[in-house]
Amino acid sequence: MKLSFRWYGVNDPVKLEYIKQIPTMESIVTAIYDVPVGEVWSMEKILNLKEIVEKAGLKFDVIESVPVHEDIKLGRGDRDKYIENYKQNIRNLGKAGVKVICYNFMPVFDWTRSQLDKELEDGSTTLVYYKEQVDQMDPLNKDLSLPGWDSSYTKEQLSELFEAYKKIGEEGLWKNLEYFLKEIIPVAEEADVKMAIHPDDPPWSIFGLPRIITCEENVDRFLNLVDSRYNGLTLCTGSLGCAKFNDMARLVDKYSAMKRIHFIHVRNVKILSDGVSFEESAHYSGCGSLDIVEIMKMLYKNGFDGYLRPDHGRMIWGETGKPGYGLYDRALGASYITGIWETISKISK
Ligand code: DNO
User: Residue ranges of the domains in the chain?
Assistant: First the structure.
């Protein structure tokens, strides 16, 4: 297991120097944020970022994410041009020594929450998904803005995208994903970069848009689209694990035994009594619905040697910043995970 930490670049209030001070921290997970979706990341920009990360004594091994243009997901317009650009990004990142690229195939919106600063009993704040609140949201209302949402769309563009996704439905999305993978995985093999899809968060359809990387059956279908180790997973315990139908320890066991998990996001979530609402909790198992020790045991048992990052943290100790991505609670998560790993490795000897 290689410990890593997400960092949003030079403007991130969490400094690389602080990340480096977390015991056993090896790698940074980052991206280039100032190139429009679908365009090529120049070698110059990539190498510049790598240099900044390496100067801080950390490795530049994991990219999260190289976003996929909507034309690729919809199988229309300039899809082939964007796929060529995507291939070039894989080659460029491979040349810079990157080992894993995380991406997702969620239509229009990435992760979705109804509130980003819900105060918990202990005074910390966290991200929550309350179904009644989500049901009342109107994504076509431009005043609505949440992280993970591309706010650059006009209302008209958004309505058009919604219509287009309605037309293709889940099966159309699968077809376009297959087309994309058949193009890019051979390039990833050649560049020796593992592609790792991030599951849909939450793993069910929102606002009538199709979502497909949601459950065991669909993950199996995804892995079979191109049966190569380079076609792998960013297994996100919080994204899949907020649905009761996903038994996370079992899924981690299954896919790590198959050597198809290249990157894992460890996050805990507390599923609420309606079964379809959840709150992101501290990483400690007792705080949420997931058994983090069991998950780590499965990784250890299967000799997991990919990258792991503590995922979203709450805001604690008065910290302010990017929701889910402060330093303190994620660092506590990192230490908790390292502690579990050390314990398992010692008692297994
Ligand atoms: C949220 C993240 C996601 C993730 C993308 C990967 O905190 O886990 O935004 O980076 O879905 O493409």
Answer: 2-348
